[in-house]
Amino acid sequence: MRTHTTAAVVSGAIVVSALALPAVAQAAERPGVSAGFGDFTAKPAHPNTSLGNITFSKAVINGGKDIVLGVATKKTVIVTYTATSSSGVALTEAFLWQGTDSSSTDTITGSLGTGDDPVCAESTTRTGVYSCEAVFHINAASDLKNNGVAGTWKLFLGGYDLYANASYNDDVATTRIKEASQLTLDATPEPVRKGKTITVTGKLKRANWNDGTYVGATGQKVLLQYRKKGSHTYTTLKTVTSGAGGALKTTTKATADGYYRFSFATSKTTAASTSADDYVDVK
């Protein structure tokens, strides 16, 4: 996956891609015409977020869904968009990035690129209107290690028209890249007499891409839910806040045979998850 440094000659100077990762050794090069962030963001109009006569619109990232990655997830993410120019479109490039200013490596915290140039096809009924598709092959274990954080990522689109004029927009759309989460639950004692106390424990963990492990998620709201035997519907009994190391612990009264589970909705950085249910026999 080409996620890192690309170099281009602009006005006689070598411009390093603004979305280069700190580890230059991870750089990837492709023969032929190479359009990286440096080609676009080095233009004097920056820090404006867009430049040129190609306009980018109707961008959809991952079908409009969050991108959820565990510590070893390999995921293909499709981005579709429209590029429009009266001068035609010769080539486009797509990047996902984090930061405040795409023109400086000092203000970029994460970057992901495509393995190949996006594919664009001109409309048969509207001259100068191109439907494009970019494919990101993301390997969480390598591409997100020390490269950005969970949360909001921006879509940068750049391109050249048929006269080699560059255009770009560094905030066409946004998506959320989230850490996968894991939930466990254990309800005891089993069996239990009706009216007695059931103790429910568990743990909420989230993916840590830098360490390649799942770590406890502290201070998160988790729902304890119950489904009576023979029913297909869960009801929420209470909300539990995860403690140190993601630990969960609460109690409830035994009423009837049934199943207990924990459910974590989601957060800005961590994806939703639900524990396996645990059946408790009530005597």
TrEMBL record:
Keywords: Signal. It comes from the Bacteria. Residues 1-27 form the signal peptide. This is Calcium-binding protein. The lineage of its organism: Bacteria, Bacillati, Actinomycetota, Actinomycetes, Kitasatosporales.
